[in-house]
Design goal:
Shape: globular
Number of helices: 13
CATH architecture of the largest domain: 3-Layer(aba) Sandwich
Oligomer: single chain
Radius of gyration: 20 Å
Order of helices and strands: EHHHHEHHEHEHEHEHHEHHEE
Strand order of the largest sheet: 3-2-1-4-5-6
Structural class: alpha/beta
Helix content: 25-40%
Number of strands: 9
CATH superfamily of the largest domain: 5'-nuclease
Length: 293
């Protein structure tokens, strides 16, 4: 497996993932039936895809050098995802539907991926977010080009043949950190320690895009980073503090522990003691996810 310092390219067949997830939650064929009569907001919300979980997992293979998502972005089921993707610097590729023809995402995605790999020799890992068997030739070609190929697909909608064609297949349902709601319940450091915050913000205020992470967002970032590291290495319990910080920076480059009134990453970990434990000696600092999380 490539080192975490290597570059990663991510290609998302967005329609594939959204439709597969919707049908997984509401039953096979539900997406097309509901689209014809008009989507219900509650049903869309119940089948929402956590894009951050996908991209955060991809970052565990290395620095995200290229991320692209292919879809018809005018479709109502896709519209509310656009800001999330743009916020994560994902390049949105518009696919205009052609009457009576199959979705052309697989062809466009494959052409782009092969062209990109010819121009980007630094990319060691390619993450294909799709479960369609149409991607088997692409996966095989990428492996022949020396890339480590990972596929992320929705359970029940991922081809067994694709699993055999890639180096690693991950089911969307098993992505670490899919649910980070418990991060909202952990103890937060006192407001006075937040050097950039003059008063205790509300939950809604903390989620606004200010160009800097809120304390609550930083807590969720730490929690998800530790879960991802555990998922990647189930036999390990303690991780070097530098490795944890590097994973957090790959997930969100805006993270800086000094924004939260501390002078070191170790101090930042100590302020999140309800979810993480820090062990220090003269030679190293290691961190682990507190049991129960």
């Amino acid at each position: 497996m490539p080192e975490p310092s290597a570059a990663v390219a991510v290609y998302i067949d967005f329609d594939n993932v959204v439709i597969s997830r919707y049908d997984q939650v509401h039953g096979k064929g539900s997406f097309w039936r509901d689209r014809d009569k008009g989507f219900d907001a509650a049903r869309l919300a119940a089948a929402e895809v956590d894009l951050h979980a996908i991209l955060d997992f991809a970052s565990s293979y290395g620095r995200l050098a290229l991320t692209r998502a292919y879809a018809d972005w005018s479709v109502p089921a896709n519209v509310h995802y656009r800001k999330q993707l743009v916020d994560r610097a994902v390049d949105l590729i518009q696919l205009f539907p052609a009457s009576g023809s199959k979705n052309g995402a697989d062809i466009r995605l494959a052409v782009d991926a092969l062209e990109d790999m010819g121009q980007m020799p630094s990319v060691a890992t390619v993450v294909l977010v799709a479960g369609d068997s149409d991607y088997i030739p692409l996966a095989q070609r990428l492996k022949r080009m020396g890339r480590y190929v990972v596929a992320v697909g929705v359970a029940g909608a991922t081809s067994r043949s694709l699993a055999a064609a890639v180096d690693e297949l991950v089911t969307y349902d098993n992505l670490p950190g899919l649910s980070d709601r418990d991060a909202d319940e952990v103890e937060e450091p006192p407001a006075k320690k937040r050097s950039s915050v003059k008063s205790t913000p509300t939950k809604d205020e903390e989620d606004k895009d200010t160009g800097q992470l809120s304390s609550r967002q930083a807590t969720r970032l730490l929690l998800r980073a530790l879960r991802i590291l555990r998922e990647k290495d189930p036999d390990a319990e303690w991780f070097n503090a530098g490795e944890v910080k590097s994973q957090m920076k790959r997930m969100d480059p805006s993270f800086n522990e000094k924004d939260f009134g501390v002078t070191s990453f170790s101090e930042f970990i100590k302020t999140r003691s309800s979810i993480a434990e820090l062990e220090e000696d003269h030679h190293s600092r290691t961190v682990r996810l507190r049991p129960g999380h």
